[in-house]
Amino acid sequence: MSATPPVIELRDGAVAIAGRPIVRHVDLAVSSGEFVALMGANGSGKSTLVRALTGLRPLATGSLRLFDTPLDSFHDWQRIGFVPQRGGAASGVPASVWEVVASGRLTRRRLLRPLGRADRAAIDDALEVVGLADRAKVGVSTLSGGQQQRVLIARALAGEPELFFLDEPTAGVDLPNQQALADALGTLSDRGATVVLVAHELGPMAPLIDRAVVMRDGRVAYDGPPLTSEQVATAHLDLHTHDHGHHHRDHEQHHHDHAPHVSSLLDGDR
Amino acid sequence: MTPPMSDFLDLLGLPFMQRAMIAAVFTGLAAPAVGTYLVQRRQALMGDGIGHVAVTGVALGLLTHTSPTWTAVLVAVAGAILIEIIRERGHTNGDVALALLFYGGLAGGVLLTGLANDSGARLQTYLFGSIVSIAISDVIVTMVLAAVVVLICIGLAPQLFAVAQDQEFAQVAGLNIRLYNLMVAVLAAVSVTVAMRTVGLLLVSALMVVPVATAQQVTRSFRTTLGAAMVLGTVASLGGLLISAYTSTAFDARVTPGPTIVLLALAGFALAWPVGIWLRSQRRLQTPFPVVPAVPHEVADEHAHEHGSDCGHVAVPHGDHVDYVHDGHRHAVHGKHYDEH
Ligand SMILES: Nc1ncnc2c1ncn2[C@@H]1O[C@H](COP(=O)(O)OP(=O)(O)OP(=O)(O)O)[C@@H](O)[C@H]1O
Ligand SMILES: [Mg+2]
Q: Keywords, A to Z (chain A) (predicted)?
């Protein structure tokens, strides 16, 4: 386990949006092959953290390494797959399901080269996994919201990534298709892929999870064995985080007598 | 009727008309190619904004007695990059950025033309197009620029498509978003100036957007939309030129090509629109019903009607059989009666 460096290594990461600190003091190391569920209430900073981990949002402070490479010099983007939260797959011009999924192969295609046989096979596989193989030629804008979500999942699958970020991929997806996606992620995970999954309800994914990370108000409130959705709501009260041992409850209570002090769990660092 | 027809054929043989036809074909191919990406990004009015900025460029060329084509290219590219930067920074929304350049470009152009005194009439030719007065050097510039635009739009289609479809996904896929965004802006500026001689700066956007709007009435994929828009653009551009040339000779009327091209493109849209509505409803009606198990067996109410291949009810595939759509119900043959599906 300790022989290979972590796939994701974020040290003291902070993200500010328009100058306002949103995510603070996050230390997160995810090792190869791990299946991590990122949980927490609405607005707790899960998407912001994922966007920082994919390089979409710059870190205000801290350092991020992906596959043991600093983000600034990381160029192996074909190793990363991303399903954004509630994207919607439609745009101003008709696009077929197949075309949107095919854009997931871009990470592996060189400029000005047509799609190869391997590309087509990966696209067909991805469509098969999300159960949309028979809709490949249909325009995406005519699909339902859940079906469009499945198109976006297929797009990420088509790139055959080693590290997967899925931001609430199953929101609005029915149970059989959640199961199908869980099976696909299970297969990928067995092949050694690393998965970071943002979810409120784990549903059929629950057996796959190795570890849960719970965000609360921009900070990691829990990092440990998998939790149920009910436990997530109260996870911050226990605070048995592995590497945040200093945030103990008795420690906070000790300071409560001093009026001007703001609870360290809630205040930003500046 | 013979004399006008032979006059018309004679006209087609004249060098200025042949130059005009070449310019029309190249413009008709390039403008909708860029237009497809602009429409995909929901920036259909970008061409208009750049067109207005280019007015200042043309006026600058007239004022300084340099080539208005090249000053227009430079100013339009600068304007397009400015629009893109304002949009990216997100300080103002894209719409407002466009509007500001609209007004600034037009006002600047008219002001500069006033300073140049005698060039008002020449500015007019750029505002509404003057394809038949195009010089050989302008034809060559048009051909080269249009060819570059078309090659980039087709060659980099996968990348440009992905960036326009979902910018964040494209960024995580490792594409240089800013580069591609600027590329689209510059391509738009170049095709505006290419189309300037054909349809004029004030109508340029029509040739970029209308063929795309027409194509997407009947298409379902991006690739066919792009291809069909380019074909439609060429047909409108060349067709409009020929119609105006023919009516000018036959009826001795002054029919300018620019507006004719735009009106022909709009006529195409007017034809495609009802076809599109009909096609979409047909597709929706005939999409196979999904195969779902465990629906209780329910026999349809008695009805004397017998469904068949041409009974007038839409037959929709449903797994291994067909359902007939009948008064909002789905009837499937089951022995001697019909089941509700
Ligand atoms: N573009 C933005 N501009 C300003 N504030 C933002 C922006 N995006 C997110 N925030 C703020 O950052 C905080 C965290 O948002 P984030 O989207 O990361 O939450 P989340 O945990 O993903 O929530 P959800 O479960 O609803 O997806 C919220 O308080 C939100 O208001
Ligand atoms: Mg979120």
A: ATP-binding, Nucleotide-binding, Transport
Q: Is A17 in the pocket of ligand 1 (CB under 6 A)?
A: yes
Confidence check: pLDDT of A257 > 70? no
> pTM of the full predicted structure?
0.84
State how far the Cα of A262 lies from the Cα of A266, in Å rounded to an integer: 7
CB A63 within 8 A of CB A234: no
Handedness of CA A136, A140, A143, A149 (dihedral sign): positive
ipTM above 0.95, yes or no: no
Q: In chain B, where does the domain assigned CATH 1.10.3470.10 lie?
A: 3-286
Q: At what angle do helices B15-40 and B222-251 cross, to 10 degrees?
A: 150
Pairing label, strands B329-334, B337-340: antiparallel
> What integer is the mean pLDDT of B62-81?
91
CATH no. for B3-286: 1.10.3470.10
Q: Judge: A92–B223 Cβ closer than 8 Å, yes or no.
A: no
Taking each helix axis as running N to C, give the angle between helix B257-286 and helix B177-199, from 0 to 180 degrees, rounded to the nearest 10. Answer: 130
The CA-atom distances, in angstroms, between B333 and each of B257, B289, B315, B338 are: 60, 15, 12, 5
Residue list, CB under 5 A from ion ligand 2: A 47, 85
Q: What is the CA radius of gyration of chain B?
A: 26
